[in-house]
Design a protein that fits this description.
By secondary structure, the chain is mainly alpha-helical. It is 82% helix and 0% strand.
Length: 389
């Protein structure tokens, strides 16, 4: 235990920094969606596809990355993700057509797989009763989306799109080297030597895998969908320019980032199920409020911030629940599957919202669908985990 305490803070901080920077890289397209739309003459549906495409690979890629993390450990996998992300980051920055942006944006999803490395990595560094705190703090790295929303449009204005992407590639390279030098796997961690496919099959037979996958698809998927598509939504509905939409999206992301570790800490104290019930109820209510298009600035801003806070609480609660329901040797594989579900939960809403806006010139139906989904998840959580309330 003394060895664990000695390395806990350093490795948790390093993991969170990697998650933050790779999430920034993962979300490089969303804050610039307005300029891409104007430059290439894209329809709302095409823009939503462009924003959502990195989410697809970042979601599905978490499954093999989680399996590899069980076998190789976070000290190896974190630098691998950093270095692999450099290539699509540069190519997205140099792309000059819709087809090229879709292709390289698809590969940019590699950066989003870092989540499946970090959860088992930090879990191994902390005792079971502290894993809600650890995964909550690590999960705050999703604030990389806030950094991207705030800084990416401004950096493009200051130094240009190509130079902005080169700067991100350099930061990823430096961080990969730093992690190689300073990061260590927990003394309590043991590599899994079982073949990957049988482990994945075993993970799919665990009821908690599917339960947590569904809940994470709603909570984290909702956050990803909003953080990537919100710049487009704010420009369409409230006529913000790109930098103003980015600033408000950053505020949304920060609220979720602050709420996520709070969700983890509260899960350690009052139970993850209670945190999830509060999160899902709040999400359903705020989706209904947003469907009425609250006016600027205070009403709309407060509504989006509260939505972000509820989604962040739920995201923190889900992985606190995973840590309690799944044995440590399987956490990486289960995390990959649950994380993939969360990412996929963030892939479809922008596509649906773009299609809805194309047909109706409003997002009302999309918000109502979110409210219905959150309500269904609330009822399911109360039923499936009533013995843990």
């Amino acid at each position: 235990m003394s060895d664990l305490r000695h390395g806990q803070v350093r490795n948790l901080v390093l993991a969170t920094v990697v998650f933050t920077l790779t999430f920034w890289a993962w979300n490089l397209i969303g804050p610039l969606s307005g300029s891409y739309s104007r430059l290439l003459g894209l329809s709302p549906t095409q823009t939503s596809m462009l924003v959502a495409i990195p989410v697809l690979v970042g979601s599905l890629g978490r499954i093999p990355v989680g399996v590899l993390t069980d076998r190789l450990g976070g000290r190896v996998m974190f630098p691998v993700i950093c270095f692999l992300s450099i290539i699509p980051v540069l190519l997205v920055g140099w792309a000059d057509s819709y087809g090229a942006l879709l292709l390289w944006g698809f590969l940019l999803g590699v950066a989003g797989t870092s989540f499946a490395v970090g959860i088992p990595f930090v879990n191994a560094w902390y005792a079971p009763e502290r894993r809600g705190f650890a995964t909550g703090v690590f999960g705050a790295g999703m604030g990389g989306t806030a950094l991207s929303a705030f800084f990416t449009p401004r950096l493009v204005e200051w130094i240009g799109r190509g130079a902005t992407h080169v700067l991100m590639a350099v930061m990823l390279a430096v961080l990969g080297v730093v992690v190689l030098l300073l990061c260590r796997d927990s003394p309590a961690w043991q590599p899994s030597v079982a073949p990957a496919l049988p482990r994945m099959r075993e993970a799919t037979r665990i009821t908690a895998t599917w339960q947590c996958a569904f809940l994470y698809a709603v909570c984290f998927g909702g956050f990803v969908a909003f953080s990537t598509y919100l710049p487009t939504l704010l420009q369409n509905v409230y006529a913000f320019v790109q930098t103003e939409a980015g600033l408000r999206t950053a505020g949304f992301s920060i609220a979720a980032v602050v709420a996520r570790p709070v969700g983890g800490i509260l899960s350690d104290r009052v139970g993850a199920v209670r945190v999830l019930l509060a999160s899902l109820a709040g999400t359903a209510v705020m989706a209904l409020v947003l469907s009425f298009k609250p006016p600027l600035e205070f009403a709309a801003g407060l509504s989006f911030v509260l939505m972000a806070a509820f989604l962040g609480l739920g995201a923190g609660g889900v992985f606190a629940l995973v840590a309690k329901l799944v044995e440590p040797s399987r956490v990486g594989t289960v995390t990959g599957l649950v994380g993939a579900a969360g990412g996929l939960g963030g892939y479809f809403p922008p596509v649906v919202m773009g299609a809805i806006y194309t047909v109706t010139s409003a997002y009302t139906i999309g918000y109502l669908l979110l409210a219905a989904t959150a309500l269904a998840a609330l009822i399911y959580t109360g039923s499936a985990f009533r013995d843990r309330v």
